[in-house]
Amino acid sequence: MHLSTSSGSERRVPPPPEVSDEEALDAYSHVVSTVAARLGPSVVNLKVHKHLSNHRQEMGSGSGVAITPDGYIATSAHVVRGTDGGTASFLDGSEHTVEIVGMDPLSDLAVVRAAGAQLEAVELGDASKLRVGQLVVAIGNPLGFGGTVTAGVVSALGRSMATRSRDMTRFVENVIQTDAALHPGNSGGALADGRGRVVGINTAVVSPGIGQGLGLAVPVNDTTTRIIAALMKDGFVRRAYLGVVGGPRPLPPRLAREVDRTHGIEVVQVVDGSPAQRAGIKPEDLLLEIAGTKLDRMEDLQRIMDGTVAGSTVSVIVHRSGRTLELEVTPAELTA
């Protein structure tokens, strides 16, 4: 396009100034690329196997996240379940033999270790601070393609995901739902916030027949970091079992004034034959307190349900149909 001056002379529109690739990145791209560069060296491609008689059988693959410099790697329990070892490969081409340190199918978390390796450990964040709509970045090895980066938002919080071990079913609470594209092989990989802190371990992909573009991640919070620490130390997790599925619910105004707080836990489901059912806890009950501890969120209940209360009879305060009741419950020892 030519522009004419009043004197009839022509002048050309000057070309746009040259900018570097980094300057050309918009804010969204800059965040994603920065997180990918930060976490890429810490996310591993796991290949696991099982030794059968005189040969080794390849069992599958997934992802993992380096959590300590001396070789500890967090992953999903279903990635390593039924196997006895494997290899971890990194973006720089290095590969290390890994042994299974411990796994907890009821939280779908596991820890493996690359003995003798020096790893770049990630920074763990706190999923309880996430907000719906917040940017998250997933890094893993879907379909065997190492170091794959996808991004999206937190679609929902507070979801529950059923896990199973032998004849025991448990619900992992406060699972993160995201629309960041996940595929088989992403399990065990990192879900990070915009500052590169790992806030979740990717664990499940919702199939296209159910809902497309949805993935789930086990949150990194006080409960799960204790599980990971127990796996690193003992190889297993001791926990007590109550047998309820629920979530936070605002308390009725009058009750809120009486107990001087705003939330309790609403019981959505009571597992048949569970300690909760034997104690008389029912769906739609509001759990206010257990063993002297106030309950505002499911994390509060999970924090109490460790191995120390298994087999002990404790008081539970519930609100039902306008009345506050005190029941006694004996949580059972739960083994995976």
How is this structure best described in words?
It is a single chain. With 336 residues, the protein is α+β, with helices and mostly antiparallel strands. Among the domains are: 99 residues, Trypsin-like serine proteases (Thrombin, subunit H), CATH 2.40.10.10; 96 residues, PDZ domain (Pdz3 Domain), CATH 2.30.42.10. 15% of the residues lie in helices and 43% in strands. The chain contains seven helices and 22 strands. The protein has a six-stranded antiparallel beta barrel. It has a six-stranded antiparallel beta barrel with strand order 9-10-11-14-13-12. Strand 9 and strand 10 form a beta hairpin. It is flat and about 80 Å long. The protein starts with a strand and ends with a strand. The N terminus is likely disordered.
Q: What is the helix content?
A: 10-25%
Stated plainly, the CATH topology of the domain at 127-225 is called: Thrombin, subunit H
Radius of gyration: 25 Å
Note the gap between the termini: 73 Å
The SSE string, one letter per element, is EEHHEEEHEEEEEEEEEHEEHEHEEHEEE
Q: What's the CATH C level of the domain at 127-225?
A: Mainly Beta
Low-confidence stretches: 1-6
Instruction: Estimate the strand proportion.
Output: 35-45%
Number of strands: 22
Side-by-side strand order of the widest sheet: 3-4-5-8-7-6
Q: Structural class, please? A: alpha+beta
Summarize this structure briefly:
With 336 residues, this protein is of the alpha+beta class. The protein contains seven helices and 22 strands.
Layout of helices and strands, plus pairs?
Blueprint: E1 2-4, E2 10-12, H1 21-24, H2 27-39, E3 43-52, E4 55-66, E5 72-75, H3 77-80, E6 85-89, E7 95-104, E8 109-113, E9 135-140, E10 148-165, E11 168-178, E12 190-192, E13 198-205, E14 215-219, H4 222-233, E15 239-241, E16 244-250, H5 253-259, E17 263-270, H6 275-279, E18 286-290, E19 293-294, H7 298-304, E20 314-320, E21 323-329, E22 332-334
Antiparallel strand pairs: 1-2, 3-4, 3-6, 4-5, 5-8, 6-7, 7-8, 9-10, 9-12, 10-11, 11-14, 12-13, 13-14, 15-22, 16-17, 17-18, 18-19, 18-20, 20-21
